[in-house]
Amino acid sequence: MSSMQLRTLTFAVSMALAGAAMAQQADGRTRFILAASWQPAFCQTNQKKAECASQTGERHDATNFSLHGLWPMRQNYCGVSDDQKAADKDGKWASLPQVTLSAETQAALAKAMPGTQSGLERHEWTKHGTCTKMSAEDYFGVGVHLLGGLNASAVRELFAANIGKPVKAEAIRAAFDKSFGPGAGDRVKMSCRRAGNVKMISGLTIGLSEAAGSASAKSAGLGDLIQGAGKTSFGCDEGVVDAAGF
């Protein structure tokens, strides 16, 4: 190979690598997931859970998204004993260690995560929170803050305006783009579940960048964290926004 050919090949390889790096940067990489539930739909098939038996149409989670969790990608049960892991998988959340939080964060979490009535915060910390570098106070503080961003958006407005009605994926993606920037809807997956003959929207999992895994995310914009994540398929294409009550 001549020196000219070698230089040409080297240049071509360099350009290809640079292009790949730029593409990766543009697409981002999902490091965390914000899991948000539509609680009325969840409760349709979990009516005996404490948070479902006590739900009313006036309660916050009847017309707002609820916090399921903040999940680091591909990491579970970090530094957790085998006994605690087994108890968690068996759904024996009351036997898991109590999560110590400030009174302010505890109150905010109880509102954002109705599942605390069933020990959901113990499960979330045991399975997911232990795999972050945050304290429990910061971990749940970040989750509550990011959920607040979702509930202050056009996405929540869309759901609240269509309770009892079907909503298509296209409308939800458009609401994400409106509130969190172009392409935000490409970083969201929607889940649905059936209750009788009705397909209901049960929740959203929203891709976030690595920055979601630090205490500073308590003051970060949800849109910035979404834009730094990778794209995903949307999942369910249409579902009913369920109303509170059985």
From TrEMBL:
Keywords: Signal
Membrane-spanning segments: none
Cleaved signal peptide residues: 1-23
Signal in keyword set: yes
Family in the record: Belongs to the RNase T2 family.
Family annotation (PANTHER family): RIBONUCLEASE T2
Protein name (database record): Ribonuclease
Source organism per UniProt: Rhizobium croatiense
